[in-house]
Amino acid sequence: MNLLIMGLPGAGKGTQAARIVEKFGVVHISTGDMFRAAIANQTEMGLLAKTYIDKGELVPDEVTNGIVKERLAQEDVKQKGFLLDGYPRTAEQAHALDTTLSTLHIKLDGVINIIVDPAHLVERLSGRIINRKTGESYHKIFNPPTDYNETDYYQREDDKPETVKRRLDVNIAQSQPIIDHYRTKGLVYDIKGDQEIEFVFEDITEVLLKLK
């Protein structure tokens, strides 16, 4: 079974990806892991990526696409299938992935798309507060400190609601064309992420058992 998983920051994608890998035995391929492995193994594309990373530059799409192709060609993927997480990030990368899969004679079975109302995600992601004295992190709603008062706690700029909203807006703009691309192929399975983790996974499992 060959899958993509998509979802906005805070939607629970990482949690569900780990459960899918455990239950269905597919290989979890995340962008970060892929880059680290390619560089450590000194593959052609890994060495090329390192030249950009060492200079503090963004790795170009063609190098990222090449690293993905190297990884998808490996034996464990052929035997177990894969769950691709964090790629593609753009419509151009989605088209490149189509070409890669076609070249490797791999069929994509489905795209798990975890949907959560962006307003809920802002609440979820912007609730983090930090104790000025201890540096401990809490969440205003899900894990509030017992002694909360505004003087003793602060919020990082990245965690403030307006910053979180901007980040989500960028993600929505980037991800929508990708989802539209796969939706035209009939590959997208929308999963309601605004429910308990167990129920989200039950819905995913129901889809994947039909795809097996």
From TrEMBL:
Chemical reaction(s) catalysed: AMP + ATP = 2 ADP
EC number(s) on file: 2.7.4.3
Residue numbers binding AMP: 31, 36, 57-59, 86-89, 93, 156, 167
Residues involved in ATP binding: 10-15, 128, 137-138, 195
Gene encoding the protein: adk
GO molecular function (one): ATP binding
Protein name, UniProt field: Adenylate kinase
GO biological-process terms attached to the record: AMP salvage
Domain notes: Consists of three domains, a large central CORE domain and two small peripheral domains, NMPbind and LID, which undergo movements during catalysis. The LID domain closes over the site of phosphoryl transfer upon ATP binding. Assembling and dissambling the active center during each catalytic cycle provides an effective means to prevent ATP hydrolysis.
Highest classification ranks of the organism: Bacteria, Bacillati, Bacillota, Bacilli, Lactobacillales
A single GO cellular-component term on record: cytoplasm
Organism: Streptococcus macacae NCTC 11558
Major subcellular location class: cytoplasm
SUPFAM superfamilies: P-loop containing nucleoside triphosphate hydrolases (SSF52540)
Pathway(s) where this gene product acts: Purine metabolism; AMP biosynthesis via salvage pathway; AMP from ADP: step 1/1
